[in-house]
Design a protein that fits this description.
Layout lengths: L8 H18 L3 H12 L5 H7 L9 H37 L18 H15 L3 E2 L5 E3 H4 L18 E4 L2 E3 L5 H9 L4 E10 L11 E12 L3 H16 L5 E6 L4 E10 L16 E10 L1 H6 L7 E9 H9 L12 H4 L3
Parallel strand pairs: 1-5
Antiparallel strand pairs: 2-4, 3-4, 5-6, 6-10, 7-8, 8-9, 9-10
Helix pairs in contact: 1-2, 1-4, 2-4, 3-4, 5-10
The chain binds 3,4-dihydroxyphenylalanine.
């Protein structure tokens, strides 16, 4: 049996320190380093801390020197630990950078960006043209009284022309307006001529839905009342609109029509955009397409709002926004506007 020579405290300390250094050196990560720290420098049971207990057995004169030595060893080990910790942290950071590397030159993920609906865009274009021609944009209620939707516009209750606007009644004398024309009456009731307004807005009709009809759609109404307004102004104004909207090569013509609130009434036609007038499916082989209804404001309408019909005359027109958009883009079914099918909408 070999008897280990009993080590002096100094030797013991040196051996512990050497082992600690070696373990610190070997620590592969921060967790391992932490346990080395606890093993040697831990307040309770740390190997270095424990050596202080041995101090008591030393001769009194040796104690200060050895105590100092213990402190020095502890300080040194703490410094070595700190350096190692810094190195491990840096290594972890490098590893993270390596594994989480992003290639900033890769193309990004494209987000779907929306755009305005073709009906909205067409509406804005129509407004812009008339604003440029000096018109003011006003609006009116979508729920109307029978008076504004009909009587005020010279369409009495028993008049056959009411069939032209099959309406949604809400009870009493309220209905969803079947056209934007009632706003003519509302505007004129509130002001004296000159009146120069357009009225964009939603309209509702009890129409069976098909390729060219929908129960809800948009119109733009126009009204100009002043002294000396004639049919020549009507033709000039709407001809200019058609050229700005459909291109300056578009020809236009006016054909007789009937509306109770205008006299005379006229349908405005443009030559077919699809076949340039030679005849096709879209213009029903006629070469012409009706784009709006118009006429000279009926004196009865002016009288309804108390205007002096000896002094003032007016012109009015109304167009379907969906219809204009369909013509503009060659769309052959109005239902496409409301189905929210992105394959359709993305084309505009
Ligand atoms: N309100 C008519 C409709 O809905 C359109 C219209 C025609 C309006 C002639 C007018 C006009 O102002 O003069 O069918």
């Amino acid at each position: 049996m070999t008897v280990e020579p009993k080590m002096s405290l100094r030797e013991e300390l040196a051996a512990i320190a050497a082992e600690a250094r070696a373990q610190i050196e070997r620590a592969a990560d921060l967790k391992a380093l932490k346990s080395v720290e606890v093993e040697f420098l831990g307040r309770k049971g740390g190997k270095i801390t424990n050596t202080l207990r041995g101090l008591g057995q030393l001769p009194a004169e040796e104690r200060p020197a050895v105590g100092k030595l213990v402190n020095e060893v502890r300080d040194e080990l703490e410094a070595v630990l700190k350096t190692k910790e810094g190195a491990l942290r840096e290594a972890e950071r490098q590893e993270k950078l390596r594994t989480e590397r992003v290639d900033v030159t890769l193309p990004g993920v494209a987000f779907d960006s929306g755009h305005l609906h073709p009906v909205t865009r067409t509406l804005r274009e129509i407004k812009q043209i008339f604003i440029g021609l000096g018109f003011e944009v006003v609006d009116g209620p979508e729920v109307e009284t029978e008076y504004y939707n009909f009587e005020g516009l010279n369409i009495p209750a028993d008049h056959a022309a009411r069939d032209m606007w099959d309406s949604f009644y809400l009870g009493g004398d309220l209905l969803l307006r079947s056209h934007t024309s009632p706003v003519q009456v509302r505007v004129m009731e509130k002001q004296q001529p000159p009146v120069r307004v357009i009225v964009p807005g939603k309209c509702f009709r009890r129409d069976a839905v098909d390729a060219t009809h929908h129960f809800q759609f948009h119109q733009v109404e126009g009204l100009l009342v002043d002294e000396g307004i004639s049919f020549a102004h009507l033709k000039g104004l709407l001809g200019e609109f058609a050229r700005q909207m459909f291109g300056k090569q578009r020809k236009s013509r006016f054909v007789p029509e009937y509306f109770p609130f205008t006299e005379p009434s006229a349908g405005m036609m443009i030559d077919c955009f699809a076949c340039e007038g030679s005849g096709c499916r879209i213009c029903k082989q006629s070469g012409w397409i009706e784009i709006l209804g118009s006429g000279m404001v009926h004196p009865a309408v002016l009288e309804n709002v108390g205007y002096d019909t000896q002094k003032y005359t007016g012109l009015a027109f109304g167009m379907g926004v969906e219809r204009i958009a369909m013509l503009r883009h060659g769309i052959d079914d109005i239902r496409l506007f409301y189905e929210n099918d992105l394959r359709f909408l993305r084309q505009f």
